[in-house]
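dumping this here before i forget
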Amino acid sequence: YVAKHQLSGQVFNQSPKLRQEFQELELPSLESLRITNIHDAYIMFKNYREFQRWNTPNLRHLVSVHFFPLSLTGLANLTSLDVTLKLGQVGLADFHRDLSCSKNLEFLALKLEDGGVAVGRQESFKKVEFPRVRRLKIEMESQPPQWIDVLKTFFDSMSFPCAVDLHVKFDGEVTKIHD
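structure:
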C-alpha cells in the first residue's frame, strides 16, 4: 500500500488543494492498486475521473470495489483486473470503453450487483476482443428486469477467444419478465 487514508467527501470537497494533489499523484513504480469505496462515491468523487491524471505506467493489477477509476492511464497495461460494481454506479458504456483499452488482460473478474438504479436508456457497446484473457470470472446478483437487455448487449459485445478457465456465478433469481 502506498498509503491508507480515510478521507470523507466533506474533507475532499472543502480542500481543493488536497483534491488537486490527489488527482496529480505520480506513481511510476506502482504495480498493484486496490480501491475500495465504503461510502457513497457520488459525494467524494466527481464523475469517477479523479484518477485520470495519475501517472501509473507500470500498473499491472487492479482490484476495484464499488468504484472504477475511469480514464486511468495505467488501465492499458493491466494484466489482471478484479472489479465489483453496483449497476448504475458507473455508466456501463464508460466502463466498457475503458475496459476495451486493456488489451493485455490475462485475468478478468467482474461482479455486478444490483445498484437499485433504473436504466436510463439502452446503451450500445462496440465489439471488443480480449485475446490474452485466459481466466474469466463473472458474478451477478439478481437484477431488475429492465437491466437484462442492457446486460445482454454488454456481454454480447465482448469476446474472449483464448479463455481456458471460466467461472460464472449467479446469486439470486435470474429471470426476464416479458411484456
